[in-house]
Amino acid sequence: MTKKVNPKLLKEIKKYGAFDISACFNCGNCSAVCPLSKEELSFPRVMIRHAQIGDKQSILSSLEPWMCYYCGECSSTCPRDASPGEFMMSLRRYLISEYDITGISKIFYRFPYIQNIFVIFIFAIALITFLKFNGDFGSLAAKIELVFPFYITLYIISYLFIMYKKTILDRLKKFVVSLNPSNIKNMIVHGFTQKNFIACSEKDYVRWFSHLLVMSGYILTLIISNLHILEPLKKQYLLFTPLSVLIYYSSLSLIAGGSVMIFRRLFKKGQSSKFSHSTDWLFVIMLFLIGLSLFLTYTSNIVFGADSNLLEIIYKINIAIEISWILIVVPFTKWIHMFFRPFAIYLNGLKKENSQVIVEEI
Amino acid sequence: MSDNNLNEAQKRVGVYVCHCGGNISDVVDIKKIVDEISKYHSVVVARDYVFMCSSNGQSLIEDDIKNMGINRIVVAACMPSLHELTFRNAIQRAGLNPYLYEHINIREQVSWVHKDNPQGATSKAILLIKAGVEKVLMQDPLNAIRVNAEHRVLIIGGGISGMRAAVSSADNGIEVVIVEKEKKLGGKLNRDGYVYPSDEKAVDIVNKFSKKILSNPLIKVYTESEIINIGGYVGNFDIKIKKTDGDIDNIKAGSIIVATGFDHYMPYDGEYGYKKSDYVLRLKEFIELLSKSDGLEFVFKGKKINSIGFIHCVGSRQNEGIDAPQADGKVNEYCSRVCCTSGIYTMNKLKEKFPDVNVYDVYADIRTYGMESESLYEIASKHDVIFFRRPLDERPQITFEGDKIKITTTDILSFNERLEMEVDMLVLLTGMKPSEIDDISGYLKLSKSTNRFLQEVHPKLRPVEMNINGVFAAGTSLSPMDITESLQSAQTAAMKSAILLSNPDIPLDPFVAVVDEERCTGCGRCVEECLYSGAVTITEKTIDGNIKKVAYVNPAMCKGCGACVAVCSERAIDLNGSRLSQFEAMIDAIVKE
Ligand SMILES: Cc1cc2nc3c(=O)[nH]c(=O)nc-3n(C[C@H](O)[C@H](O)[C@H](O)COP(=O)(O)OP(=O)(O)OC[C@H]3O[C@@H](n4cnc5c(N)ncnc54)[C@H](O)[C@@H]3O)c2cc1C
Ligand code: SF4
Ligand code: SF4
Ligand code: SF4
Ligand code: SF4
């Protein structure tokens, strides 16, 4: 079958970051050095080529972008300085916007300042409303936090469904699932340990460690807010309890990890920090602020007591930050990738099990 | 030198055996050779050395001549074309006649071809050296032939190579005559548009040289003129030039530089759609079109051009059975070397002028060799030119659909998928073919390579010299070159010619035919056999008061091929340095064992 070359696709993908990728002359060095590229899932060169010739079909149905953890080894090796690692990152942004039925991702990724404005706007509206609110803020916060898990789950399910559709359904033209235990186990292991990340960034321990800190802090914070674990206006907390350890760990690791990441971006340490899409900036700054406000909320509860006015103000700020974070940031920045990665691994297993069918289709 | 009169006992032979690093000694038993040869008759000394051609090796020979009275030399080493001259010069430095020397090739003819049989190789080397000793014992001292030289060079072709050669020759104080068949000097650079790597207008380069040429009193230019005959020999060429007005000028020249350049490849009708549509152009045509196109949009013949395809290697790097043969029945197997760089340079120019035009490039290999040209390739990528690599044995297909041109190709970079692209214009990167100079090469008997370009004597050691003494070639008459390379080769040719003409007379190798006038019957068979007209002729001579017809050899024109020797029933003609009697002695030495 003959494919039609379409020069528009690359121009489109470039809007998501990959500014240097035109320079690529397909030597394949990047794929050769990539520690995660495999024979059956080879990248980044293959992906770059799909983009250059405008093979949108192949891009949309590929799982390779999710296998890349952006260690940047490809970019340091590229003889043309085409930044293939950044291209893979941009491809993930591109795919997310393609998977997002609301179209919001597309706007945020391509016009990042709009996202920044929204974050500030939502935060400001929420904070003003809260400050004016004289009723029982503890109960209001409980209701707000109840909405979070629904919102996030809905978003993730819609993303993953479209991903399933583009990578499996559209190619096989039929609905398949895999109940193969090793396949499911693989997905779970990768989901919790992100173990390929360690393979990828072996040599960059600072990055690996800060990543680990932030990731665990991030997930715990998501759990804390989504399950409404903390009720600082209703309960008096103590300096040392199992809960306090949880709070200290998640908030401090966000503060520490976030600071390291901000520092690395500022001074451009390592390949993955060379380029900063402004959604990346937003992301690390938000992490830092969430950690900080969570920490301050908890400690002022201990110091000033559950009925202190100062605590209430700090808690209102904390919830306002959470709202703009959950609504505007979580579904649209790169940490949503955490959910795509294990699913991509599952889909890849599924693809392999059905490879017979795919071959016949072609 | 009274060497002729030495008796056998006075001839003292020195034999020098070279290891050539290990090229020879790894196979051949050098010690055995030296032992055995030093016992051979007339051999006074036999030595070996790791690199005989090194200055230490050469002084071994020089010292023996001075201190031991050695007066015949045999060197057993690599092929004579590499170092015969080296040793001849060494011998001359030591005060001996440089032709009392024999060179035996025990590398190409022994060690390299008999790796599997070292013993046999050693015996063969010994035999060859013994034969060499016999030959050199019968060698008479010779003297270089000297011919008077006209202090003038004829340059055929006034392209950039011819112009450069003219200026360099005149700078050396040599008179120059340029003959150009077109109206103007400049050749293919008389065109619109720019050239890599200097990024200047082609005609600006031409004008720079034209100015120098027209203001130089040593240079005479014939334009719209044709050479209708060339006779004579090195130092004394006779040239007939037919001018525009039909008049004929006769000139004499000591040397000739052929700078007749190349012709643009012309696709046959329908090759990649050429001539089937106005929108299929050759690179040369596109360069000129682009330099004339301005404005916000690229419009050609009323159509807005949004996308252009470029196809590499049109008329070059052809394969038998895939591409249609040329007029002579063969395909052009060579690479034209400039079309990749020129084509990509032109794409960049296009993208700078009209950034929105989509550019597709279908290549087999990108040959933008050289530092600066490689960066042109990188810039083209950054301009979003999309490159497609076809397999060597496939050709992109061109079809026409409405006012669109469709290119279909297999793309190696895309995992051998079949891809198609629609373009508004197609540019064929047509390269070079040798210019039609059968007349010139016929007058001068120049050899040509299988690619029909002129053939130099040796691509590395003698890159601008032709097989005929006193004739040089420059620029693209030799092979595809860009301007920089053409200029370099033209300068080299000019220097070679200047060195040749720097003496009032030119020294030539004395290995030519000589006639024994007493034996010669004037039958003329040698004249019939001789390939070089004028080298041997029949003249009348008074010998002992009688007028006799005898053969006469013009040593400047004789190539020393020996064809005449083979046909002379009287043994009246022989070759200096390779006499029949010498060969007989060599064969005797070999069969004696
Ligand atoms: C499409 C294309 C683009 C190119 N672009 C570039 C570029 O950007 N940069 C670059 O460096 N190089 C470029 N080149 C190469 C460049 O054109 C050549 O290197 C250069 O023109 C060679 O000059 P020349 O004098 O050897 O040959 P020519 O230019 O061919 O000159 C030969 C001259 O000899 C004359 N002649 C031929 N036969 C006779 C005869 N029998 N009697 C009298 N006169 C005769 C011809 O009329 C001509 O004037 C390009 C080549 C091509 C094909
Ligand atoms: S190493 Fe660079 S130039 Fe080579 S294929 Fe990868 S991105 Fe392209
Ligand atoms: S960033 Fe790392 S994981 Fe991603 S493609 Fe490059 S080398 Fe592979
Ligand atoms: S220079 Fe390039 S286009 Fe020209 S013949 Fe050689 S490989 Fe082909
Ligand atoms: S040299 Fe020999 S062949 Fe030539 S004319 Fe004399 S006799 Fe005849």
Concise structural overview:
The complex is a heterodimer of chains A (362) and B (593). Helices cover 69% and strands 1% of the residues of chain A.
Describe the structure using short key phrases.
heterodimer, A: 362 residues, mainly alpha, disordered C terminus, B: 593 residues, alpha/beta, Rossmann fold, FAD/NAD(P)-binding domain, five-stranded parallel β-sheet, binds flavin-adenine dinucleotide
Characterization of this structure:
The complex is a heterodimer of chains A (362) and B (593). Chain A has 362 residues and is mainly α. Chain A has 2 domains: 9-99, Alpha-helical ferredoxin (Fumarate Reductase Iron-sulfur Protein, Chain B, domain 2, Orthogonal Bundle); 104-350, no CATH class. Chain A has helices spanning 8-14, 29-33, 45-53, 56-60, 73-77, 84-99, 104-110, 112-132, 137-172, 181-193, 195-200, 205-226, 242-267, 278-304, 309-329, 337-353, 355-361; one strand at 2-4. Chain A is elongated and about 70 Å long. The N and C termini of chain A lie close together (9 Å). Mean pLDDT of chain A is 87; it is low at 358-362. With 593 residues, chain B is α/β, with parallel strands linked by helices. Chain B has 4 domains: 3-142, Rossmann fold (3-Layer(aba) Sandwich); 152-261 and 435-506, 3-Layer(bba) Sandwich (FAD/NAD(P)-binding domain), CATH 3.50.50; 264-432, FAD/NAD(P)-binding domain, CATH 3.50.50; 513-576, Alpha-Beta Plaits (2-Layer Sandwich). In chain B, the strands form 11 sheets. In chain B, strands 10-7-6-14-27 form a 5-stranded parallel β-sheet, covered by helices on one side. In chain B, helix 3 links the parallel strand 3 and strand 4. The longest helix of chain B has 20 residues, at 118-137. Chain B is globular, with a radius of gyration of 30 Å. Chain B starts with 12 loop residues before the first strand and ends with a helix. The mean pLDDT of chain B is 94. The structure holds flavin-adenine dinucleotide and iron/sulfur cluster (4 copies). The site of one iron/sulfur cluster has 16 residues of chain A, from helix 5 and helix 6.
